[in-house]
Amino acid sequence: MRTFIRQLSILSLALSLLGFAASAAHAQSPASASSAPASASSTQDPAQALVNLSKQLDTIKTTLSNKSASGAPVGDLRSQAGTVQQQADQWVTTLAPQMDSLQSRLTVLGPPPAAGAPPETAAVSQQRRQLERDKSKLDGEIKQAQLLSQDATKLTTEIAETRNQQFQTQLTLRADSPLSIHFWSDVVKSFPDDMAHLKRIGGRLADGISTAWQPDSRTPFLLCLIGAVLLIVPGRWLAERLTLVIARRFMPEGHFRRSALALIFTLTVTLSIGLAFWLVHQGLNWNDTLDDDLDALAQAIVRSAFFSAFVAGLGRALLSFHHPSWRLPNLLDRTAHALRWFPWLLGGAFLLLGVLEHLNSTAGTSLPAAVCTRALLALLISGLIGTALMRVKRIKRSHDHQHHQAKHPLWVGALAGLATLAVVIAWLAVFTGYIAFAFFISWQMLWIGMIVSSLYILTHLQHDLFETVLNPKGRSGQKLQSAFNISPSALEQSSTVLSALCRVLLLMVAVGTLLMPFGGGPNDLFSHIGNVFVGLKVGQLTIKPGAIFNALIVFVVGLMVVRIIKRWLSEQLLPKTKFDLGMQMSIVTLLNYVAVVIVFALALKTADVSLQSLTWIASALSVGIGFGLQAIVSNFISGLILLAEQPVKVGDWVSMSGVEGDVKRINVRATEIQLWDRSTMIVPNSQFITQNLRNVTHGNALGRVKITLPMPLGTDAAKMREIMLEALNDNNATLETPAPYVTLDDITSTAMSFSGVAYVRSPREASGIKSELLFDLLARLEKAQLPLSTPQSMIVRNLGPLGEDAPG
């Protein structure tokens, strides 16, 4: 008995230390499985290998039908079917280049000679026939591998459905209540056989430990144990201190540092404990001392250890008991203090769950022992969660009584209410005999809590990351503004949009993970997460977040490239050409619209959106165009015509329908015209095409300045003409060609009208130069003592009723 107790204690210690090593083996197993066919392809006949895979698939189908009839669990069959699928896909990948090579050689030989053509040599004909036979054989092997892959995929789905059906059946089964004597009598009756099974496993494990203690394996075993202890105790502490130093030195202060530290601390706990378990497993199995069953048990327990460490790290990071300022959730210090041990307790419960479940499966313990184990685990997990909820409720009630009532988001209250209800239902289910149902609820509470906590940390992390990187006042934001000429508002909008998209993507991943079948392992978890990126089906609609995410990347990167090219054209290339400013802006605008359309089409293609699937949108648009979008389409086409033919360019001075001003911008729908008072008039593009338009500056038109001066009848006309010509010629803004001229326009009974005309470089300068010339002429006339003509005096008379002069 003492020997058994000693062995059992060794078993418990070893099982608690068997850590993350199997996750490394699990990570290597897909690679090895996938690489097996590739390596075998050089030494193994593909046809024989495919026949073996077909036999394996038939064996899995037979086993599935037998286990389905007997009600035995079918969890291992899914991984076997997945291995067959991977190997079949690998054979398809391996044989495809050989098919391409054969096709290339047949292409070089060309088709057989036609009737009447010179015959080809016998060697060439024989070579062509041999290549065609090889191609036909290879094509058959590729098709067979593809069919095997599809059959394995269907079988995997069938296994998952069968397992779910078995699980649903188990939930409805009712066992004896733990409050009844019959429940414990069955446990006592099966106890000797269960202990014998456990003793056999303990003996095998003791033999493995004894073998690891042999001289050839003792040194690595001790080094691995020492490394494991150093990782768990000082290693994690040093890693956290180093993380703090790096964060304070390189991370900007703010919310991003807080959320990043929460994630880093979670990974620190997970990896330190996981690597410690990995080292212990490496020390024990240094020379393959553990047999296959124990190694499989260790791998299963290691996966549970990984998740348990992750649960503990999540809770520790969220509570942040030692650093309240880093705490992400809005928790009171008293609440964090009261819950400081619960993450570790829940993580230990998670590990205990995995250890006992896989130990019962490997040892083949009796049904009463398995039921008793699940009942105790359900009570333990739900009890821990219920105790935590009661502590939080008590502290909250005390705080609300002393201070004003704190407000929490609706989802927090909903989760707390559901958790409380689940705890009550779990305990009632255990004591009424529905132990499978209680175990399922307890497991789901732990699983949902882990998913929600992970989603909470990742949501805060991505939001704080975008807010920090795209902050207009931050270092990175200022670099983006200077490099890509992005406005501060555009950076803020990009931060909000990207954060919302990532939040939706994370939520979809969380939902897909929560929908994972009960009892699934890491393979099922990563498979479901992969399925979320491959596509989620909602009814007949398939949502592909991975394709959508890739399309967004293509669209954003494409717009950045378009912006860079646009900036290069407008600032470097086009200014060196002979095009005027208006032509340059038109070219840049037109190319920008074309490039944006191309980028949008590429994004749609990346998102697997076919134009044929958008025919209903085109139909709706055609109806809309028929009823209310004629003007928009007309303006759009007119805008393209304006950019292409350029009857009006940016910078032109136009006049139409009472609107006169400078063209500042030509868009695809309307044109912006700046008026004399600096206001902007938005004119639809169709008016430039359908109405009369006066383009004052079109064709580099010159400005014309005309000045008319009335002079008295006695004025010396020659002298007046000379003074006006001198004033027109002396002004620096007037042109020599065409030369200014002065004419005598009219002679009346009271005055003589002299007109002077000069030309300037642009019509825009005419008004200002005319004012300068008038001031100059007035000064010259005053100096020459030539007064301007004044209007005659007006005589005001009072007329009578009949028009005669009224009496004075």
UniProtKB/TrEMBL annotation:
Residues 632-698 form the Mechanosensitive ion channel MscS domain. The chain crosses the membrane at residues 220-239, 260-280, 300-319, 339-356, 368-389, 410-429, 435-458, 497-518, 547-565, 585-604, 616-643. The keyword Oxidoreductase does not apply. It is found in: Cell membrane. Residues 1-27 form the signal peptide. The keyword Coiled coil applies. Keywords: Cell membrane, Coiled coil, Membrane, Signal, Transmembrane, Transmembrane helix. It is a multi-pass membrane protein. Residues 128-165 form a coiled coil. It holds the Pfam family DUF3772. Residues 142-199 form the DUF3772 domain. Belongs to the MscS (TC 1.A.23) family. This is Mechanosensitive ion channel family protein.
